[in-house]
Amino acid sequence: MPAAAVEDSKAHKFNPNFTQQVLAATGQNVNLRVKQLTHSLIKHLHDFARENELTVDEWMMGVELMNEAGRMSDSKRNEGQLLCDVLGLESLVDEITYKLATDAADEPTATAILGPFYRHDAPKLEMGSNIVRGKQEDGDRTWMHGTVTDSMSGKPIEGAVIDVWHTAPNGLYEQQDPDQPEMNLRGTFTTGKDGKYDFYCLRPVPYPIPFDGPAGKVLQALDRHPYRPAHIHFLLRAAGHKPIVTQIFDRSSKYIEDDAVFAVKDSLLVDFTPFKGDPNAEFELPYDFKMATFEDAKNGMLNGSTEESGAV
Amino acid sequence: MPAAAVEDSKAHKFNPNFTQQVLAATGQNVNLRVKQLTHSLIKHLHDFARENELTVDEWMMGVELMNEAGRMSDSKRNEGQLLCDVLGLESLVDEITYKLATDAADEPTATAILGPFYRHDAPKLEMGSNIVRGKQEDGDRTWMHGTVTDSMSGKPIEGAVIDVWHTAPNGLYEQQDPDQPEMNLRGTFTTGKDGKYDFYCLRPVPYPIPFDGPAGKVLQALDRHPYRPAHIHFLLRAAGHKPIVTQIFDRSSKYIEDDAVFAVKDSLLVDFTPFKGDPNAEFELPYDFKMATFEDAKNGMLNGSTEESGAV
């Protein structure tokens, strides 16, 4: 189809009143935000169908892909979310959220998507603990440490809770892998007065997102690989501060320019440096977090939904 | 949001390269139509998110709605399809298909959506049979009859198979209702040399689409009712002709201006007229079908997907 036709979705040969008729069915007793979102979605879906002259077969293939994603989804897997991820939608919503927050406040640590492998009940560990559970696995042992500060005042935050999780060297999160101990490579740490934290983990490796479902079909249809660059997930909470959902990425990792879910940001690239003098670690990873107060961020919506979306 | 911002989705404050980055991940080894549809969908989804400054919560509510629809869907129910129906998408795809076909051929009978209650194995019945099975139910007994002709030549079509289905007077299709006999109010009829058909049925009544799932949630959120006006479904096939999926609507029915799934077309409105002299029917319904040959319609795509979509 010519680019001009795509640009101007009003210029088509189909019933020009149909979409308006669907929108006009909306009643009076509606939440205005729900109405805005639904009407916008209807307009985009209809424009998509008209611009591409969507056939019944193609539409039905899309319906079946959605239904299949729903049937695969349960408390351990969210295939609908993964389908959005490979289309870039979760990373885009994250970038919208972060942009609105930083427009309203001093710059906190950049955010990245939560992803489908978060668990809300990771064990509370003592500062300096190792999040590797059971026997030591393969992988480069790493000492990670830093300080959690307030993004405006620069002062350390006491009582900040750092929730960390990453994959095992085989590329699987513990809940995907019956051979890993429960809660392997997960933990939460609470800062003291100095805002400092430290723990031992492994240097993460790239891994494929699950590609045995609709998200995998989309990747295959687009001739794309399913790999994510090596990263560690964080969820930070502290009284009076907006939660931060983020990931940090190993700058030297394969796929760093080519994340299957488009979550990499420059400010989240980190360097694992060789570490001498600690018998428990071959690498060191210093990283500081900056959190915005609710007051700073009150005009934004920085990760405001952590509690709810964490449940999936 | 101001209308201007919605009109020009390029004018926003977010990373202007993000969508291009997602599209650029597509590999070389792709079907061009799959690429066109997926890229267009990604652009529309991203524009939708940016124009509305979609939050993580709102996005996640959409994911959960899709997942729930998938979990409810099985061989007897397609909730993903129903979700599209209440957003007008199935009727729009039907109108696109029909417009392309009529641009290429003489005007056949207008089409309407298949809906989720078609069964491919309805019983073959003798001309003049009653599709009410078991004891006569309540409802106005109707004698329907007409001729199937070729839309170009006007000649009767021999061997046309007419597949008909409609709801019982309680508003339920037989597969939704354990109290109805198997295949109640369904049947297929094959025309002879004269192209004529006739059978007895009931005058249909308005009924609600199932609203105990995500489609119902959308209707409720938009303060909309779930009712469809009274209608009878048809699927016509004949050798050398494009299949026709359609519905005819009782002009005097409630909801005729306000179908929950937007399928009504003026040319599909019919009149049930009081009928004297037949002890088996209180009403008469004459209706002729016009079918386009494959040659007439070869540049269009009139209902080309009947076989596949009928399986859902």
From TrEMBL, chains A, B:
It comes from the Eukaryota. Belongs to the intradiol ring-cleavage dioxygenase family. GO terms for molecular function: catechol 1,2-dioxygenase activity; ferric iron binding. Residues 114-291 form the Intradiol ring-cleavage dioxygenases domain. Residues 32-101 form the Catechol dioxygenase N-terminal domain. Keywords: Dioxygenase, Iron, Metal-binding, Oxidoreductase. It comes from Didymella exigua CBS 183.55. Transmembrane segments: none annotated. Its cofactor is Fe(3+). InterPro entries: 1_2-HQD/HQD (IPR039390), Catechol_dOase_N (IPR007535), Intradiol_dOase_C (IPR000627), Intradiol_dOase_core (IPR015889), Intradiol_RC_Dioxygenase (IPR050770). GO terms for biological process: catechol-containing compound metabolic process. CDD domains: 1_2-HQD. This is Aromatic compound dioxygenase. The keyword Nucleotide-binding does not apply. It holds the Pfam family Dioxygenase_C. SUPFAM superfamilies: Aromatic compound dioxygenase.
